[in-house]
Automatic annotation (TrEMBL):
Transmembrane segments: none annotated. Pfam families: PK, PK_C. The lineage of its organism: Bacteria, Candidatus Roizmaniibacteriota. Its EC number is 2.7.1.40. This is Pyruvate kinase.
């Protein structure tokens, strides 16, 4: 394996073709993200199917992630775009946008107005524009703290607002139907405010027969306030730094990134670090030094995965972006040699966790005695043991043999895990020597290991070392 840190790539108009999808997978993409804030249902339906078809042809385990829209607030303006001057007051509300000949601003959620306080800060287009709400009797105005050309339908963030927005919007239910139809591996929940939001979505998913893992996107101050409970309830966590950096001071985001990643690892929840990682590569063939440092920093934080958004959805250099990200994580993760048990102080609550800890301890002991271990060979019905070994962030691959493609695809975000389908004969209740031999032959045929390599084998309650 060239890298252990996984790459999530957002698919879009720049990469929707079969050729582009193939190139991205070969460049290092492990999971494709479908952003439900954009694109028609028909487009998502066809493109998910195309990704699955390409992955099957390549015999690669590739995950699919539907990122639900959630209760996002967007601009509604009297014109498609308006020029904003510094300290300009612009009429705000439903009445303000009725006359197309004048400047006026409203939101998609007009019922939010009673929840807004006088002097409330309002941020538009991920921080590109800032306004202050001024209430003058029954009329409302937005005082501009920025200048420039403001375009219609841009995103709106209202830090600290207590507006009781729904957890899911109508379009999200269409997304859940699509997730069921294509057996999507992950569903990301936007603007999570508490663990109760995840519980509600999980119940809705059951009704729609969606068995995907839930990704909780941490992008609000309220999510930070309920972080421990959210991580406990979610299946995965995403550090969504874009909106998080609007909801709170930018200088605090790196700190919370490290806190979210650490807590997620401690709870054995895979974590994805996202937003603007190589943004300049949307229009340039090389990233900035700061962007490379950002990706490397996430690697040193021991994130499971890093994510590309506009770079692969709309950018001019999508494949180059993936290659650069792959090279960056591949180099820097090998320099991360801190014992994870010391760094994260894991609590071992059950026998499986104790077994994974023992396997990792065996790896360290062999390395200490100058014995070379080429990887773990894990047999798992559900993928749980692979995830438990993964959280230790070993410096060797975790070759995991599972009973179905669905179980394997659910592991595509886990650090260092590479899954293969291995079906156990009916009536066989445990892994036999023949199963181990077949798995080794599989790895040899793909040049993932070589003769005389040694592997730590885990199955059931057994840990052994096998030399090929």
């Amino acid at each position: 394996m060239d890298k252990f840190t996984k790459i999530v790539a957002t698919i879009g108009p720049a990469t929707e073709s079969e050729t582009s999808i193939k190139e991205l997978i070969l460049a290092g993409v492990d999971v494709f993200r479908f952003n439900f804030k954009h694109g028609t249902l028909d487009w998502h339906n066809k493109t998910i199917q195309r990704v699955n078809n390409v992955a099957k042809k390549l015999n690669k385990s590739v995950g699919t992630l539907i990122d639900l829209q959630g209760p996002e607030i967007r601009l509604i303006m009297s014109q498609d775009e308006i020029d904003i001057s510094l300290n300009e007051e612009i009429p705000f509300g439903k009445e303000a946008i009725k006359n197309a000949g004048t400047k006026g601003i409203s939101f998609t959620h007009t019922q939010i107005l009673p929840y807004l306080k006088d002097s409330q800060k309002i941020i538009i287009d991920a921080g590109a524009f800032e306004f202050i709400l001024n209430k003058k009797g029954k009329k409302h105005f937005l005082l501009s703290l920025s200048k420039g050309e403001l375009k219609n339908k841009k995103s709106v963030t209202i830090p600290g607002s207590n507006f009781p927005a729904p957890v899911l919007v109508e379009r999200d239910f269409e997304g859940l139907k699509l997730a069921a139809r294509h057996e999507v591996d992950f569903v990301a929940l936007s603007f999570v405010r508490s663990a109760k939001d995840i519980q509600l979505v999980r119940e809705k998913m059951k009704k729609y027969s969606v068995y995907a893992k839930i990704v909780a996107k941490i992008e609000t101050k309220k999510a930070i306030d309920d972080l421990d409970n959210i991580i406990e309830e979610a299946d995965l966590v995403m550090v969504a730094r874009g909106d998080l950096g609007v909801e709170m001071p930018l200088e605090e985001v790196p700190y919370y990134q490290k806190i979210i990643i650490k807590k997620s690892i401690q709870k054995n929840k895979p974590v994805i670090t996202a937003t603007q990682m190589l943004q300049s590569m949307e229009h340039h063939p090389h990233p900035t030094r700061a962007e490379v440092s950002d990706v490397a920093n996430a690697t040193y934080d021991l994130t499971d995965a890093v994510m590309l958004s506009g770079e692969t959805a709309l950018g001019e250099y999508p494949v180059e972006s993936v290659r650069f990200m792959s090279k960056t994580v591949g180099f820097n993760e090998k320099k991360n040699t801190v014992d994870s048990r010391v760094r994260f102080n894991f609590e071992l609550k059950d026998y499986e966790e104790l077994l994974a800890d023992s396997a990792y301890g065996l790896l360290l002991q062999t390395q200490k005695n100058k014995l070379h271990i080429s990887g773990f060979l894990v047999f798992s019905e559900t993928g749980t043991m692979a995830r438990l070994v993964s959280r230790y962030r070993p410096q060797v691959p975790i070759f995991t043999f599972v009973p179905s493609a669905a179980v394997g695809e659910a592991l595509t975000v886990n650090y260092a895990v590479r899954a293969f389908v291995h079906k156990i004969p009916a009536g066989q209740r445990e892994i036999l020597q023949n199963d181990v031999r077949e798995a080794i032959e599989n790895l040899l045929s793909q040049n993932l290991i070589k003769k005389k390599d040694s592997l730590i084998v885990l199955h059931g309650d057994t840990i052994t070392i096998v030399t090929v």
